[in-house]
From TrEMBL:
This is DNA polymerase IV. Poorly processive, error-prone DNA polymerase involved in untargeted mutagenesis. Copies undamaged DNA at stalled replication forks, which arise in vivo from mismatched or misaligned primer ends. These misaligned primers can be extended by PolIV. Exhibits no 3'-5' exonuclease (proofreading) activity. May be involved in translesional synthesis, in conjunction with the beta clamp from PolIII. PROSITE patterns: UMUC. Mg(2+) binds at residues 10, 104. Pfam families: IMS, IMS_C. It comes from Natronospira bacteriovora. Belongs to the DNA polymerase type-Y family. One of its GO terms (molecular function) is DNA-directed DNA polymerase activity. Residues 6-186 form the UmuC domain. Binds 2 magnesium ions per subunit.
C-alpha cells in the first residue's frame, strides 16, 4: 500500500474549553462539565481540573472529593454542536475524507493532497490556526501513515500538540510506548504481557509469534501488527445522517391554526431543500409539537414513494400538524414546532416517476429546482411558494 497521510484531530478538553471560552472568569480554574446530581459522571474536565486527578467518565461524587473547589457545570450540548459544526467545516475545507469520531474528534485522509504530503506539519499547523481563529479552541493533531499511529500521536502531543510520525520514524516513535497504549486491547491481556516482561511496543514487536500465541492466543498477529504500527483501515467519511430536521421555538406561544400551517409549509420546504442539497430522499415525514407545559408530541407518516420534493413533505407535515391541532382542547397553544425527515436513503438519480414535466410531481420538481437556485442566491427564507405567504412576521421564531 502506498504511503498515506492521515491526521487525527482532537480538541483539547472540548466541553470544558468551550465553557472557559464563553465565560472568561473560568479561565485558569478547574472546570468540570457533567457530574452534577447524585449519579452523574464527568463529561469533560479542564486541564486545571485534571491536575487534581479528575477525568472524564469519573463519578461526579468522586470528582467533588478530589477537587472541592472545582466549578461544576451542566453540559450545553447545543453550544458544543454549534462549535463542532465550524470545526468540521475547517476539516472539510481540507478534504472530503473526514471520519468524525465525536463532536470534537476526527480522522482526515490527506493522501491525495500533494501540498500536504510535501509539508504535512505546516498543513496541520494551518488547520490548528484556522480552528483557533474561527472558534477560539485549541486542537491537537497527530500526523501519521495510518489511523492507529495518528491517534497515538495526537494523544501524546496533548495539550496543544502537533506530532508528526513519518513512515521512517515509526519504530522510534512506537518502540518506547507502554503496551497499555495498544488499541482495543483489554486490561487482562496487557497484564498477561507485563507478567511475561513484555512492557513496551518494542518488546512486543521482538517477541516471536509462537511465544506470543502461547500468551494471548488468537490476538497475537493483531498485537504484533499494532506494535509494528501496521494499520490498513481506511478513513471512512460519515455515514448518511439518520434524519434531517428543523424546528422553531416561539417567543410567544403560537395560538393560530393557519399560522401553524404556514410554518409547517416553510419548515417542510427547508427540510426538503436540505435533503436535495445532500442528495437524499426520505421515506417518512414526522412533526414535533410541544405545548407550553413542555409535553412533546410526535406524529409521523410514510410517503408512498421516497421523496425530496417540497410539496410532498409539506402536505404530510401540514396534515399531521392539523390532525394534532384538532385533537387538542378548545384553545391549543404551541411552544415549539418542528419537521423531521426520516428513513433517509441516497438519491440515486433513478426518478422515473418524477421526471415527466406534465405530471404534478414533475412540476413540483421543476419548482424545487428554481427554489434551490434562488435560495443559493438570496438565502433561506426570502422565497417560498405562493401558498405559504403571509402571517410570517407573526410566527417569526425567536430561535
Ligand atoms: Mg477531545
Amino acid at each position: 500500500m502506498a504511503d498515506r497521510l492521515i491526521l487525527h484531530v482532537d480538541l483539547d478538553a472540548f466541553y470544558a474549553s468551550v465553557e472557559q471560552l464563553d465565560n472568561p472568569e473560568l479561565q485558569g480554574r478547574p472546570v468540570i462539565v457533567g457530574g452534577l446530581g447524585g449519579r452523574g459522571v464527568v463529561s469533560a474536565a479542564s486541564y486545571e481540573a485534571r491536575r487534581f486527578g479528575v477525568h472524564s467518565a469519573m463519578p461526579g461524587a468522586r470528582a467533588r472529593q478530589l477537587c472541592p473547589e472545582g466549578v461544576f457545570l451542566a453540559p450545553r450540548m447545543a453550544r458544543y454542536r454549534e462549535l463542532s459544526a465550524i470545526v468540521f467545516d475547517c476539516f472539510r475545507a481540507l478534504t472530503p475524507l473526514v471520519e468524525g469520531l465525536s463532536l470534537d474528534e476526527a480522522f482526515l485522509d490527506l493522501s491525495a493532497d500533494p501540498g500536504a504530503r510535501e509539508h504535512p506539519k505546516a498543513c496541520a499547523q494551518g488547520l490548528r490556526e484556522q480552528i483557533r481563529a474561527r472558534t477560539g479552541l485549541v486542537a491537537s493533531v497527530g500526523i501519521a501513515p495510518n489511523k492507529f499511529v495518528a491517534k497515538l500521536a495526537s494523544d501524546l502531543g496533548k495539550p496543544d500538540g502537533l506530532v508528526h510520525v513519518s513512515e521512517a520514524g515509526l519504530r522510534a516513535f512506537l518502540d518506547p510506548l507502554p503496551v497499555e497504549r495498544l488499541w482495543g486491547v483489554g486490561e487482562a491481556t496487557t497484564a498477561r504481557l507485563r507478567r511475561a516482561d513484555i512492557r513496551s511496543f518494542g518488546a512486543l514487536r521482538r517477541t516471536p509469534e509462537p511465544r506470543l500465541r502461547a500468551l494471548v492466543g488468537r490476538q497475537a498477529p493483531r498485537l504484533l501488527a499494532l506494535a509494528r504500527g501496521d494499520d490498513h483501515r481506511a478513513v471512512t467519511p460519515e455515514r448518511t445522517a439518520r434524519s434531517i430536521s428543523t424546528e422553531r421555538t416561539f417567543d410567544r406561544d403560537l395560538k393560530d391554526r393557519s399560522e401553524l400551517q404556514t410554518l409547517m409549509a416553510d419548515m417542510a420546504e427547508q427540510v426538503a431543500a436540505r435533503l436535495r442539497s445532500k442528495s437524499l430522499q426520505c421515506r417518512t415525514v414526522a412533526v414535533k409539537l410541544r405545548s407550553p407545559d413542555f409535553r412533546t408530541f410526535s406524529r409521523q407518516q410514510s410517503l408512498g414513494q421516497p421523496s425530496d420534493a417540497g410539496p410532498a413533505l409539506r402536505r404530510i407535515a401540514q396534515s399531521l400538524a392539523d390532525e394534532w391541532w384538532r385533537q387538542q382542547g378548545p384553545r391549543p397553544r404551541l411552544r415549539l414546532a418542528g419537521v423531521v425527515a426520516r428513513d433517509l436513503l441516497e438519491n440515486t438519480g433513478q426518478m422515473g416517476l418524477f421526471t415527466g414535466r406534465d405530471t404534478a410531481a414533475g412540476k413540483d420538481r421543476d419548482t424545487d429546482r428554481l427554489l434551490d437556485a434562488a435560495r443559493e442566491r438570496f438565502g433561506e427564507g426570502l422565497l417560498r411558494r405562493g401558498m405559504a405567504r403571509g402571517k410570517r412576521s407573526d410566527s417569526e421564531p425567536g430561535v
